[in-house]
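Async update (no meeting this week)

Hi team, since we skipped the sync, here's where things stand on the single-chain job. The sequence we agreed to prioritize is pasted below, unchanged from the tracker. I ran it this morning and attached the output directly underneath so nobody has to dig for it. Comments welcome in thread, and please keep replies under the output.
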Amino acid sequence: MPTPPLTDDKAMAAAIAYRAANDNKSEAARTLGLPRNTFCNHLKRAAERGLLGPARNVAGGMRSGKSLTRQPASMSNNVKRRARNGSQPTGW
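Output:
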């Protein structure tokens, strides 16, 4: 039998406990009486639903490791090359 989906109430409880524990997952899990892995799953779902606030990264769960502001090297090189040649990149 599949696991039932996590309710918004449980996801919100995980988010509140996480914040109350100063972003300490182990402490928040103990507060809720959940195993840490289960709590991390609840917290991940809370983050996916936007319950942790704007663009909140949860260490060990939601980060991709890629910068959102850094351009790929190939794009950066194209911009530099066009600047040397005196032409503007397309779309500018």
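Quick observations from my side:
The radius of gyration is 21 Å.
Confidence is low (pLDDT under 50) at residues 62-69.
Reply here if anything looks off.
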